[in-house]
Amino acid sequence: MGGWNEEKDQGQSGINIDQVTDEIHQILHKRIDKLGVAYGIVREFSYHPEETSSWTISIEDSKTVLTLDILFKYMKQHRNLKDTLTHFMCDHFPYFT
User: Fold this and answer.
1) Where is pLDDT greater, at 3 or 49?
2) Please, which of 16, 40, 67, 69 could form a disulfide with 54 given CB 3.0 to 4.6 Å?
3) What is the mean pLDDT of residues 84-93?
4) What is the DSSP string of the chain?
């Protein structure tokens, strides 16, 4: 019984936002763990459909926020979630080369 919530979660693009946000969180942790530096990732989410998930990423003294809007802009160029996140991290943190 595909209900209203399922359709809302999938949005216009037909993807399951919860599944994607979980995958993003996992990929970020795996990529940053390999660096062997102090870091933190805080995932913020809301039950309000107007507010999307975001991640505040801190590595050493650097900090940035990744939103789904930013992610989708990167996805237009890279098409693959792992490559997209890698390029985002390279653009925002000097630890990624």
Assistant:
1) 49
2) 67
3) 92
4) ---HHHHHHHTTTT--HHHHHHHHHHHHHHHHHTTTS-EEEEEE--SSTTS--EEEEEETTEEEEEEHHHHHHHHHHH-SHHHHHHHHHHHH-TT--
Distance CA 95, CA 97 (A): 6
Phi, psi of 38 (to 5 degrees): -70, 135
First CA to last CA across the chain, in angstroms? 46
- The dihedral built from the CA positions of residue 13, 67, 27 and 23, taken in this order, carries a sign that is negative
pTM of the predicted structure, to 2 decimals: 0.74
pLDDT digits (tens, 9 = 90+) for 18-76: 778 889 989 999 989 988 889 999 998 877 777 778 999 999 889 999 998 899 899 99
Neighbours of 76 (CB within 10 A): 8
